[in-house]
């Protein structure tokens, strides 16, 4: 959570003249997203999110992200919708940064999601996968096998600082995944970061998905495995098979998984656990003490990785085979 | 700007059952205020501010602050209004902290205020002083003569790090102010921190005053001198007499200053410049590098202090005597 850039109100008013957004009533920097600066605007028409894209986001990726939200929204998914400027562009410039105005989605993320919520998330993920079909732009997943290797090369020599023996353990995971990563599964647009803070609920009803800034093209079932990791483990590290079952049933009620996707689930889940372990490990080793960012413990994902390593059948995730 | 405390959505919903605030639709931590955690809530009724009071605020002061906002609002001032709970209390508890629900004020603060805005601020300040009459609670100003001495005692030995000779210079200011501080001027409730970021405008119209967490009982004309310091100097350090004139005329259109208040203005302004110099100096010397808080340059207020020191007549502030 962070606001990196302050905006002067006269600059913002000038920026808004390019949009048909109503009269500006207020704007507040909000503590949301770690990559960008976000502001909640009240206008005479509707609340809006203003996002200023900071350095960590590749400017060349922005048409993909903004176009994707438009495409998914048009496909019936509830997600933030970029407002076009009067000239049709989705992107403007504010305080020297690329900036977009995006519809505000009411709802709250669940700090303690239950199995029934996992079912809704599974459904929404499948809806997103279906709605993503036909989207013209492509973006490769920078955090797949190759990206993991790059991250690991930067962290490997210090991995044993976190836990003795980790260097050998992770190296053998990487070797396994390089050798057995599935190739011919259905692919498409994946969210790639559908953690609880990116899913809004109103009561028990899912009101929408946010934060598509990791979205990319990859195996759809890999996205399912990310959600299993993000939603279906308890704080004590135990896998909650009821949550897993609900998540997978919810998903399959919209888009049934193929046999080969189901068969690949343990490998994919091992991969996605490794992916979050590696980014957290890297941040853990490189973020200075006292920095503004909360460091997430990499060991949480090490425990998940070990769980997936010992899975003998996809049924253990809660699938009725 | 900071959000110190995260709130779980189920805790917040539980907290809201004590209020008649409508259905919760969303809440966002906002980057506002450095002492407390603030959240902007959308409900089915109206937007609201939720404030969690962190350690730096004295819990025993909260009835003063919240009661004051209620009193000023009832007196016709546009300012945030605390919502009473169903049991009538203005204060509840959330995440282990005292917490209040307060009406949301639309408007934006001006990064580059003009003379016409200074006039509006002067008027609103006087309206606040008038509306403050009859408020039953008292709170002494902890940042007056005694408080300055305490701050100075902690910083004096290192003052020359900021600028050589500063130790003697500031010591003689303190001696002068201790000897000549006015005593028999009209007193009452003052805002004590009415900087541009605490005054909201919609277009050129002032929409309200916020942040009463420095409010206290003190000389009303001292509050005027704080506003002269906060609003009427340019970035290059020059006093803008047109802004000063507008500020003072605006103020006097609601509450005319007495002759003795006018005569005391140079001394009061010297005191308020010293007050902000001293807190900034202290923060400058004690805040660790890389902390989350932006350090404000104490030299800005040193320059203002030197300006007030050489004033020979209150007319130099833009008063027609």
TrEMBL record, chains A, B:
Pfam families: APH. Its EC number is 2.7.1.39. InterPro entries: Aminoglycoside_PTrfase, Homoserine_kinase_II, Kinase-like_dom_sf, Pseudomonas-type_ThrB. The keyword Acyltransferase does not apply. Pathway: Amino-acid biosynthesis; L-threonine biosynthesis; L-threonine from L-aspartate: step 4/5. The keyword Transferase applies. One of its GO terms (molecular function) is homoserine kinase activity. NCBIfam families: PRK05231.1, thrB_alt. Belongs to the pseudomonas-type ThrB family. HAMAP family: Homoser_kinase_2. PANTHER family: AMINOGLYCOSIDE PHOSPHOTRANSFERASE DOMAIN-CONTAINING PROTEIN, AMINOGLYCOSIDE PHOSPHOTRANSFERASE DOMAIN-CONTAINING PROTEIN-RELATED. This is Homoserine kinase. The gene is thrB.
């Amino acid at each position: 959570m962070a606001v990196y850039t302050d905006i002067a109100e006269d600059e913002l008013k000038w920026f808004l003249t390019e949009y048909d957004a109503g009269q500006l009533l207020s704007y507040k920097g909000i503590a949301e997203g770690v990559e960008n600066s976000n502001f909640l605007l009240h206008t005479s028409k509707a609340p809006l999110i203003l996002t200023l894209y900071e350095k960590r986001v590749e400017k060349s990726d922005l048409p993909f992200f903004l176009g994707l939200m438009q495409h998914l929204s048009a496909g019936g998914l509830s997600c933030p919708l970029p407002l076009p400027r009067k000239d049709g562009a989705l992107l403007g410039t504010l305080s020297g940064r690329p900036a977009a105005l995006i519809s505000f989605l009411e709802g709250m993320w669940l700090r303690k999601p239950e199995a029934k919520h996992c079912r809704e998330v599974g459904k929404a993920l499948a809806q997103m996968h279906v709605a993503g079909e036909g989207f013209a732009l492509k973006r490769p997943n920078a955090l797949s096998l190759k990206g993991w290797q790059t991250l690991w090369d930067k962290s490997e020599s210090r991995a044993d600082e976190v836990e003795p023996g980790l260097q050998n353990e992770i190296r053998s995971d990487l070797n396994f995944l390089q050798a057995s990563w599935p190739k011919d599964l259905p692919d498409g647009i994946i969210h790639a970061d559908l953690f609880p803070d990116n899913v809004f609920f109103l009561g028990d009803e899912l009101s929408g998905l946010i934060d598509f800034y990791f979205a990319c093209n990859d195996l759809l079932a890999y996205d399912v495995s990310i959600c299993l990791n993000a939603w279906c483990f308890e704080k004590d590290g135990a896998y909650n098979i009821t949550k897993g079952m609900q998540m997978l049933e919810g998903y399959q009620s919209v888009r049934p998984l193929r046999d080969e996707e189901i068969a690949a689930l343990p490998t994919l889940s091992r991969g996605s656990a490794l992916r979050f372990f590696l980014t957290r490990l890297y941040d853990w080793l490189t973020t200075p003490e006292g920095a503004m960012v909360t460091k997430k413990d990499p060991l949480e994902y090490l425990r998940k990785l070990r769980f997936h390593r010992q899975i003998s059948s996809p049924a253990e995730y809660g699938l009725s085979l």
